[in-house]
Amino acid sequence: MELHHPIVYLPKNRKTGKVKYLTICAHQDDNEIMAIDGVMKGYRSRKYSFACVVTADGGGSARTGKFANYSDEMMKEVRIKEQEKAAEIGRYNSLYLLNYSSKEIKDPENEQIVEDYVALLKEFKPKVLYTHSILDKHPTHLGVVTKVIRALRMLSKEEQPKVVYGCEVLDWVADNKKVCFDVSSNVRLQKKILNVFESQIAGGKSYTNATLGRRYNNATYAQSHSVDSAKLVSYAINMNKLLKDPELPIKKFALSFVDDLYTEINDAMDKIL
To answer: pLDDT tens-digit profile of 103-150?
Structure first.
């Protein structure tokens, strides 16, 4: 497998089974925040494993405290070490750091990243792929997911994952369009891999509390008229339609979720007004 300028890290206690679960994300720690379902399934499985692909180099990270005077190059090294430590704790099969700048990721003409994604997808042939949602407002996240979709559309049906999930901030999506992952087990592990990213926490982002809080909130507020069946829930949307219909414009598919929300609100109000 040929990639343009990756760092490949194989954890010492890595799971060596076939990679069934794969994440392609933008930044160090995005995987641990958005794709915890895959992390946990790989961690628990005796047969399959989980692998992670991080696209950005980490040089643009916010910094304060002891990291306040760190240069971009120094921050890149810190972020790499943090992500490697998370891979060790989570027993990832492998970690690929592709080392692209945010500017390169957001460039719609950048073909190198698409080529890297194609190579990785062909190498691993995951059954389940986690990436950013096409509804994400973060421009670097959108740069990743749009290129992931382009890469997936270049594969044969046999090479494509069985399911592609777009993950993270999706509480506003119509209920019938949400995929809910029960991630109630091993909260201690979830905390441990989030706490690894000290540079972000020191930078004023309490991601551990915010991420676990979101998962608790998702579980509690998901159903107003029933007892919680899960303690922690992570959300995603199913993006398989973009593979089944290669001609479907990504923007049109994204905006269909807005239409679904409109319909849900309209129907609810019709019953009251």
So the answer is: 999 999 999 999 999 999 999 999 999 999 999 999 999 999 999 999
Question: What are the DSSP calls for the chain, one per residue?
Answer: ---SS-EEE--TT---SEEEEEEEESSTTHHHHH-HHHHHHHHH-SSEEEEEEEEE-STT----GGGTT--HHHHHHHHHHHHHHHHHHHT-SEEEEEEE-HHHHH-TT-HHHHHHHHHHHHHH--SEEEEE-TT---HHHHHHHHHHHHHHHTS-TTTS-SEEEEES--TTS-GGG-EEEE--S-HHHHHHHHHT-HHHHHTT--HHHHHHHHHHHHHHHS-TTS--S-S-EEEEEE-THHHH-TTS-HHHHHHHHHHHHHHHHHHHHHTT-
pTM: 0.94
What is the per-residue pLDDT across 160-179, written as a single tens digit (0 to 9) for each?
Answer: 999 999 998 899 999 999 99
